[in-house]
Design goal:
5 strands, single chain, three-stranded antiparallel beta sheet, binds fe (ii) ion, two-stranded antiparallel ribbon, alpha+beta
């Protein structure tokens, strides 16, 4: 099924020609669908900038920042949980964007079924209430950041905002779904109308990805 790839870092070590070990670079993961596949809700032009420029730049920046530091060769998750400042910001933005691309699917949208429906109904009573609450938190996040559906350590679900590059894994919470509400996610298609972008988001939500995250550790 398309859209199920999860964030990962290329981080294995390799032996160079001279025999010394080199930490392999963090790589930009492939998009799980063609760049025009989310249109008309999210245009190919937005993907060109958002994935091809912003996401790619975070990867380039991180590789430059971690060179010759304790984080060279570390996993993204390790970097996110241990680093501060620019290294954290770029690592978390790489992870968050990969998770975001997988939270969307050209085959997504509509109402959840199966495990995703069961979990949402248990937590929010109905999909309509979940959609209202999530949309509200996404719309009211001040400035740049992310709106998440997360699973808490006790198994309960919450909708949470994080500012800038913030990622719930730093607090031991498991992301299930995210919506990027940085302006660069919607400005080309919707100018400053974030609520219109959030409405479009619901046409693309990858419920299978949410269900797979619910079931994984
Ligand atoms: Fe973004």
């Amino acid at each position: 099924m398309r859209g199920m790839r999860k964030p990962q870092a290329a981080r294995t070590e390799t032996i160079g020609m001279e025999g010394e070990k080199h930490a392999m670079a963090i790589e930009l993961p492939e998009l799980p669908y063609p760049k025009d596949a989310l249109a008309p809700h999210i245009s190919a032009e937005t993907i060109d900038f958002h994935y091809g420029a912003h996401h790619a730049t975070y990867v380039k920046n991180l590789n430059n920042l971690v060179r010759d530091t304790e984080f060279a060769g570390a996993s993204l998750e390790d970097i996110i949980c241990k680093a501060k400042g620019g290294i954290f910001n770029n690592a978390a933005q790489i992870w968050n964007h990969t998770f975001y691309w997988n939270s969307l699917s050209p085959d997504g949208g509509g109402e959840p079924t199966g495990a995703a429906k069961t979990a949402i109904d248990q937590a929010y009573g109905s999909f309509a209430k979940f959609k209202e609450d999530f949309s509200g938190k996404a719309a009211t996040l001040f400035g740049s950041g992310w709106c998440w559906l997360i699973k808490n350590p006790d198994g309960s679900l919450s909708i949470e905002q994080t500012q800038n590059a913030g990622n719930p894994i730093t607090e031991g919470k498991k992301p299930l779904l995210t919506c990027d509400v940085w302006e660069h996610a919607y400005y080309i298609d919707y100018r400053n109308a974030r609520p219109k972008y959030i409405e479009a988001f619901w046409n693309l939500v990858n419920w299978s990805f949410l269900a797979s995250n619910l079931g994984s550790k």
